[in-house]
Amino acid sequence: MSETAYNNRTVEGFLISSLVWGVVGIVLGLLVSMQLWEAAFNFGQYFTYGRLRTVHVNVLAYGLGLGAIFGLFYYMLVKLTKRELVFPKLARAHLWLFNIGIAVATLSLFAGLTQSLEYAEFEWPVDIVVVIIWVIFCVNIFATIIKRKENQMYVSLWFMIATAIAVAILYLVNNMSIPATLTKSYHIFTGLNSANVEWWYGHNAVGFLFTTPILAMFYYFLPVSTKMPIYSHRLSMVAFWSLIFTYLWTGAHHLVYTPLPDWLQTVAIIFSLMLIAPSWGTVVNGYFTMESDWSKLQSNYLTKFFLAAVTFYGLQTIQGPSQAIRVISSLIHYTDWVPGHVHMGTMGWVTLTACAGMYYVFPKIYATTVYSVKMANAHFWLVFIGQIMFSLTMWIAGIQQGAMLKMTNTDGTLAYTFMETLAGIYPYWQLRTVAGVVYAAGMIIFIINIVMTIVKGRNILASQTAKA
Amino acid sequence: MSDNNSIYSKPVTFSVIALVAILVGSIVTAFYPLARDEMHPKLDTLKQYTALELAGRDIYQREGCSVCHTQTVRPLKTDVLRYGDYSKAGENAYERPFLWGSRRVGPDLARIGGKYSDEWHNQHFLDPRKFAAKSNMPVYPWLENVNLNPTTVESHMKALNFSYTMDEIVALSDKTELEALTAYMQFIGTSVDKFSLVVFSEDDYAEYNNIVKGKPEAAVRGKSVYLSECSGCHGKRGEGDLAMPLAEYGEDMDEMTAFMTIANGLDGFMPGFINTMTKDQIAGIVEYLRVMSAGAGSGTVQ
Ligand code: HEM
Ligand code: HEM
């Protein structure tokens, strides 16, 4: 097998793993969404909401998200450095270890082994595996970039480097813990510091898992798949540096009105507002890129994926900073508004961009075309509608409950009991499950389309080998 | 960018600059605070966890209670009304990790300690819907069947450097996970005094009683509030359950006392309802208690 074919197999392996984990995570998403409006959907110890919600989040963030990131990064890396990976075998080991790691991690969460730190739930033995996985990844990325055959590093490589460095620091620091047994440890930081370090980590998990790697994909796959060059490289540069500088200051916006010292909250709020600019740097760059030829929206089915994804990203990065402001936080913090925000980012920006990348990569690997553009369009519209329904219902539910919880009577007492406010949002939760089904239907069509593309590609390969 | 000697063609230099850019904010907002005194306050009243309470906290983590429950009351009027005094920095000196949470599917628990009896918690974990018909909290029946493992709990106490006696550890083998979780519930928030923003006074009573007394529609409203808020403890028809029967309470009650009891609560685990109910609603319940007793529990109010 040629080196290119070998590396392509690794890329393909990551992307398929990502989709398999995606199915698991989305099915669990549907189940947890049902548990919220009907407690009878909690099945025994291992399938209660408390554990499953965490499994949902981790399987999607790390299984679907990281799987897609690793696969698409290795693909882009080879193209952008104009050489093969320096350590192809290591990349293959990386693939196996990644899947074993996610499987073990998932089982451990089902078993209730958790550090209770959001996005850093894995207990310390799993953390060690994660660190090994990340080191392998970094070795390959940096070695290949250093030995590249193309002098200039393209924007996507900048974002890759930033991702590799930032995740390493964040993960190592926040997962420092005092191990008590093989399955239990306690955060090394106490009280206020535990909270502050966790959300410095937590917000930047969003920043360096759901933002910078996706931007790397966006900057690469938008121009290559639509043949429209990025509008401004100067803008990319400014946006890159200001983004990676600003992100790290904002963690405490998750802790507004907690006992954390006010100055930390205020610094985080101010930097959150500033974060609009670098985020919109990319959004504007994306819009102007597409503006060079709007007819591509008709002629190239992937254009609308990028247009919708970057629009969701743009909305997300206006909504996020607003949520950080104290008055707004006091209303929506702790409510359904936040899952509405979260899923616009994950279902809109992250998965739309990653899916577009996969639609580009799979046919390239087999030198063929996608199995069905019609199915890709159906996928797009289902995911688009499902996501908008999801977020709209959650925003309404969040504001309704937030407002009811804050309402007082003229005599100074509270207008509603907690249960009254909860009962009021059950209908929205039921609608959210419907939205999830619509989204899941879209994703299933996507997966079938990819599988058929692979089958088509393999048949072509087989017939070529037969001829040769 | 077209310049062949820019940092964009020198990956090592580029990486170092990126590292610095990432570290500046991290150092100022996450690392530097580690060393500041204001991040390590401790209330004098704060106690360390006992072995049983820590075992309960571990179960709280394991079951993922913190994805539905927060443990921090914000310094906002309505948070304080609903849950009690706002959270203090000094309450967190032994929290590893912090369990403040980020989502309130259920109510905040920062002030749950002492609010209900142990028996209430035990029953609530087995059947939340008994106390709140529309609750979506899962049931936790397996907690009742598993006893604690003293060696494991001891290694946890050691890791955290908490003091304990061997008697305390040995005694754990007789305790179920349910009892441990309940002990943890009763610990939370006990370093801060109970606190209510609104206290019901006798003047309030006079005003409402005049409007409500003898009004059937007030009793109907009172009944529905009774069923959602009181029946878990006092029984659906006032027959008594966790707490004493109320079926005959209304016969010769002193309405003012009834009013004050419901509004401000009693020390023996009768919660006060003044913060979460209108005075109007409370008056309605008193009226319902009267009607319920008159009908001797046969339900004149339908
Ligand atoms: C069928 C589609 C999906 C459904 C029905 C669903 C459902 C849910 C539900 C019910 C929650 C808990 C919300 C709450 O606390 O009230 C949640 C949380 C979450 N989900 Fe999903 N989800 C879906 C897809 C996704 C995808 C594709 C991703 C990411 C790639 C994702 C990432 C997350 C994250 C990060 C959270 C945690 C949010 C937080 O802590 O505030 N979800 N999801
Ligand atoms: C300018 C950029 C952004 C800012 C300033 C921002 C701000 C915020 C704030 C203030 C919260 C906390 C809300 C609350 O609990 O009251 C939050 C939650 C969240 N945001 Fe964003 N956001 C931004 C972009 C994004 C993007 C692009 C994503 C991608 C998916 C994202 C994903 C999340 C997630 C997963 C949470 C939930 C965290 C949790 O409680 O578990 N955010 N964001």
Explain what this protein looks like in three dimensions.
The complex is a heterodimer of chains A (468) and B (302). Chain A is mainly α and 468 residues long. Chain A has 17 helices and 2 strands. The longest helix of chain A has 42 residues, at 426-467. Chain B has 302 residues and is mainly α. Chain B has 3 domains: 7-39; 51-187, Cytochrome Bc1 Complex, Chain D, domain 2; 202-297, Orthogonal Bundle (Cytochrome Bc1 Complex, Chain D, domain 2), CATH 1.10.760.10. Chain B contains 12 helices and no strands. Chain B has helices spanning 11-31, 51-62, 77-83, 118-126, 150-159, 166-171, 177-187, 202-212, 216-229, 231-234, 255-264, 279-294. In chain B, α8 (202-212) crosses α12. The longest helix of chain B is centred in the N-terminal third of the chain and has 21 residues, at 11-31. The model of chain B is unreliable at 297-302 (pLDDT under 50). Chains A and B meet through α1, α2, α4, α5 and β1 of A and α1, α2, α3 and α5 of B. One protoporphyrin IX containing FE (HEM) binds at residues 118, 206, 210-211, 250, 253-254, 272, 275, 279, 313, 316-317, 320-321, 323-324, 329, 332-333, 338, 341-342, 345-346, 349-350 of chain A. One protoporphyrin IX containing FE sits between chains A (26, 29-30, 32-33, 36, 53, 56-57, 60-61, 64-65, 118, 336, 338-339, 342-343, 346-347, 350-351, 436, 439-440) and B (102-103, 105).
List the defining traits of the structure above.
heterodimer; A: 468 residues; mainly alpha; Cytochrome C Oxidase, Chain A; 2 domains; two-stranded antiparallel sheet; globular; B: 302 residues; Cytochrome Bc1 Complex, Chain D, domain 2; 43% helix; disordered C terminus; binds protoporphyrin IX containing FE
